[in-house]
Amino acid sequence: MKKILVLSAFLFISITGAFAQSAIEKELIQLSMDKWQWMSDKNVDKLKDLFDDKAKFVHMSGTWKKEEELEIIKSGSIWYRKANVKDTAVEIFENTAIVWNRITLDAVVRDQVVVTEFTVTEVYKKQGSTWKMLDLTFSSVRDTHTIKK
Fold this sequence. Notes:
alpha+beta; 149 residues; Nuclear Transport Factor 2, Chain: A
């Protein structure tokens, strides 16, 4: 009888943990999708709340900090018109999470329309009850690239 109770408790904890992680993964995926929409809409107020004050942004043409990224988005010097997300993977490490998005980005960069394949790495940290983005890195890839899960 004791063995059955211990086994039942173990299974319950395992299943509960799997569902909890799944819910967190869904939350992070939705946050990432919201971020793409906010970038497209140039909604710097929402992005300002999402980006940690020490966040870094790595693009093909340089690396900059939060205020520079917000100004670039606000001014439209880079307009993230549409991120077509093809694949997403999430890894959670306690209160830190990494989200990888495989995207085709339709953007306007310095008045030039560009369509580029990227794998985008987003690093988040749970601060209180909210996730804050610490890093956003664009890696140029071939259209056949896949994210290992």
